[in-house]
Model the fold of this input.
Amino acid sequence: MTRKVRRNDHAGSSYFVFQQPAYPRDCKEVSIHVLYPQYIWSVLIKPDGYPNRLRVTCNNDLDAGGWTVLQRRRLDSVNFNRSWKDFRNGFGFLGSEFWIGNEKIAYLTNQKRYQLRMDFENVAGETYDDFRISDEWGKYYISSLGTFAISDESKIEWCPANEIFSNETCERTCDDPDTCISATSRKEKSNVFVSVGDFYVNPRCTRKSTCRNNQIIGASYQCSVHATCAKRNGVRNCYCNPNYEGDGETCTRRAQDCYDLYVSGTRSDGVYTIYPDGWPSGVRVYCEMESNGGGWTVFQRRSSASVDFYRGWSDYKNGFGNKNHDHWLGNKYIHSLTNQKTYQLRIDLRDSGSSSYYAIYSTFTINNEADKYRLSIESSSSGNAGE
Done:
């Protein structure tokens, strides 16, 4: 099996002014300037940024030539079950079987756009039009492979997530898949691995690092005054405090009543979710927004005999009916609602002749269940309903 790379000269036309380097950067540049036989066993090239010259094997026999050979494996005379260091630096003999080395391939494939060609015995070669691997920090991950031609089926088989290629097969990186290091992870300065698309927040929640495009992107990070720096379900982050919502950097108070919704711009009557103290999951209530100044939280409506109001303690504690029609909200909710702020109570009445009356009490609360939800209300009221 032989693997090679070649610059793709058909990716588009560009024009540059440059100084000719002292050494060719790949076998394509060798083939342009010098007429060589089909195979050249020892050629010096120097990829951009690579500190030293390196010897490679070139193949000028395939297609238009100019292929830089990365690997040859034919007779099993060289052991390919090697360590990370061996695959990093390369091993074998250029005249027979070898691996050129991941570090060299990283420099070589990131200086231009290259094709990858793989030739198999008795099988036509596979050509990929855009081949590139990352550096050692990126664990020599194949960051680009492009599309392949000639055959309808790729000859590359990828290891599943949380597995690496070792001992000539795919093996788990650890016993627990949840703690395995992904092949696309990157290492943050604090020795924490960050997977692609994931993030890491330092213990003080002052810096957040994100893995994007095979790079760690670090930025300053600060919790809102209404958030807490904490680690939950294994993830450290800024988390908004109870009754607040947001991403942790920005936290806004959730509506505690219909008046909060009105202030935030809600203007239509209907059923909404509010978050009184002690109810982090929210409570569904009917809000009257279109009359009497708006922002009223309705805890009772009784307009017909469609709902039976002759109920027991449990029903009045938990509530009953349909909030869009006749209902009682529930004493346990009214207690939480009326003890978090100072509230007015408005009672609207309509007689059989369709005459309307109302009364407004400036203060109104009910106590807890231990006090039997005792009503506390101002003794006098305003309005036209009288006492």
